Amino acid sequence: MAKNHAKRQLKLGHMIEGAGRTWTDWRHPGAQPGASTNFQYYRHHAELAEQGKFDFLFIADSLFITEKSSPHYLNRFEPITLLSALAAVTSHVGLVATVTASYAEPFNVARQFASLDHLSGGRAGWNVVTSWLDGTAANFSKTEHLGHDDRYRRAEEFVQVVRGLWDSWEDDALVHDKQNGVFFDAAKLHALNHEGEFFKVRGPLNIARSAQGQPVVFQAGTSDSGRNFAARNADAIFVGHDGLEEAQSYYRDVKARATGFARDPNTLFILPAVAPVIGSTEAEADALWHERANLVSLEAALRMLGRNFNDYDFTRHDPDAAFPAFGSDVLNSSQGAVLKVTQAARVEGLTLREVALRFATPRGNFVGTPEHVADKFELWLESGGSDGFVVGESLPGQFQRLVETVVPILQKRGSFRQDYTSATFRGNLGIPVPENHYTQQKRTRDVA
């Protein structure tokens, strides 16, 4: 399906996962088990992403571990600290950090991301999550984890407070008039004075807006509450899909919700997570996929499955019996993932073993030659399945292979940029700098 020109261009990000995406990736002969706290590893991947003209780097995070957590979760950098360091060794790629709205305060988060935005020259992005693991509460002096819907209500207010704080300074407030001794125009510095259900925040924030106005906001909602939250608030959505049909259904639904919230759906990018396996031939790609799948034991697959079920211990069940039944209480974890798994098990009559191995080692749509992977990227873009992808690394060296083989094909076809067109994250995504809220109010008042 090679074409000389595509109507739209892909948005591409790279999720860097150190010791690997699963519980067993670190066992591969080419893997670096200590990569999750190895800055040079992250720097190498950041430089590859910038070489490939990627839109952004994506750093996932969580705040609770047990002895059963995956190797990458057990020992890794805090995202904003890491991306602040990467800001100094990159110049164009966006820098997206995951920070929870359930166990943080809006003022601190607003200040941290505004600082990263200035350090990077306007390249910061915030992936807003609500934290599904209820054990997290015990790390923050809480006796219980908020319910699913309460977490999203809190997140909704949290984002509005952070965005309000980011607008504390109008863009021309800092005049730095040495002759008259005027550092700033006091009429253009604003306290937020927010009082809501979860937060009471006065402001103003003690750092001004950056070159991109405000950091780009990501979200990863798949439940009904998550989809509404993302459609209202996000600039980009990070999501996982099993196939194109599922992706198209999600895409249509969330874009329609964005329209219902009076948003331009073309300024909301839906970016599924993928981990391509690329070989010089289809046979080589297939062999590489089996190489990765063979690393996963049943025990590891059961642990991976349990993660989305609030770290539930599936090893207590007979793996060859029917998938166990769960009550509605499991929906307080990763609701979208839980519903997907339980529905597939029920509809197809799968055993626990079948469910665990399917979701631990999905083959996916992106195993093949560079041309095959490029074709699939374009198919998903042009058929309403995505606006691009967040690319993880399936096996050591695979991301470099994608940058060196798949990206040039997409560039030749016109499906991906030849070079960066802006120094800011928003500029490269093609979304506008948001007008300062207070400046907008003044302008509206003056027109009236």
Q: How would you describe what is shown here?
A:
The chain is built from 15 helices and twelve strands. The longest helix has 19 residues, at 148-166. It folds into two domains: 11-145 and 213-292 and 363-447, Luciferase-like domain (TIM Barrel); 297-360, no CATH class. Helix 5 (148-166) packs parallel to helix 6, helix 9 crosses helix 11 (352-360) and helix 12 crosses helix 13 (398-413). It is an alpha/beta fold and 448 residues long. It has helices at 39-51, 71-74, 79-87, 106-119, 148-166, 224-233, 244-260, 282-293, 298-308, 335-348, 352-360, 370-382, 398-413, 425-429, 437-447, and strands at 11-15, 56-59, 94-100, 124-129, 194-195, 200-201, 216-219, 236-239, 269-274, 277-278, 367-368, 388-391.
Query: Ranges with pLDDT <50 over ≥5 residues?
Result: 1-6
Helix content: 25-40%
CATH superfamily of the largest domain: Luciferase-like domain
CATH-level-2 architecture of the largest domain: Alpha-Beta Barrel
Mean pLDDT: 92
Could you give the count of β-strands?
Answer: 12
Number of domains: 2
Shape: globular
Order of helices and strands: EHEHHEHEHEEEHEHEEHHHHEHEHHH
Spatial sequence of strands, sheet with the most strands:
1-2-3-4-7-8-9-12
